[in-house]
Amino acid sequence: LTPPDGIEAEIVYCGGAFAGEVAGLDLKGKIALAYESTPYQSDVAGTVGGHLEKIHRLRDKGAAAVIFCTQRLDNEITTWGL
Fold first, then answer.
1. Residue 13: which of 28, 32, 30 has the closest Cα?
2. Which of 27, 38, 37, 25 is nearest to 65 (CA)?
3. Beta bridge partner(s), residue 75
4. How many CB atoms lie within 10 A of CB 9?
5. Are 16 and 36 a contacting pair, CB within 8 Å?
6. Range of lowest pLDDT (21-25, 53-57, 72-76)
7. 8, 38, 41, 53 - which has most CB atoms within 10 Å?
C-alpha cells in the first residue's frame, strides 16, 4: 500500500490510538505512531483491543500512514506499519 517513492510526513504520537487519545489530534496527511504496552491492548479492562478499529480511527482522522509499536512480554519490540 505504500507508494513506490515512500511517504514523508510529520510523525504524530497517538498513544494507544484509543478514541480519547486521538480526539484532539490533527493527523491529516501525517504518520500516526501508536504504542501498545501489550499486544491488542484495550482501553476497557478485561477486553481485547482490535488493531483494525484503531487503524480505521486514525485513517478517519486523515493519517497518511499508521505505525504500531508493541512491547511483547519477552521484551522484544515488534513494529509493523499499515
1. 32
2. 27
3. none
4. 14
5. yes
6. 72-76
7. 41
Closest to 61 measured CA to CA, from 34, 27, 13, 12: 27
Three cell numbers written together for 28 = 491529516
Q: CA 64 to CA 19: how far, in whole Å?
A: 18
Digit-coded pLDDT (tens) for 24-51: 999 999 999 998 877 677 777 777 777 7
The answer to pTM > 0.85 is: no
The answer to whether the beta carbons of residues 5 and 39 sit under 8 Å apart is no
Closest of 16, 14, 5 to residue 61, by C-alpha: 14
Q: Extract the runs of DSSP E, i.e. beta strands, from 16-75.
A: 31-36, 65-71
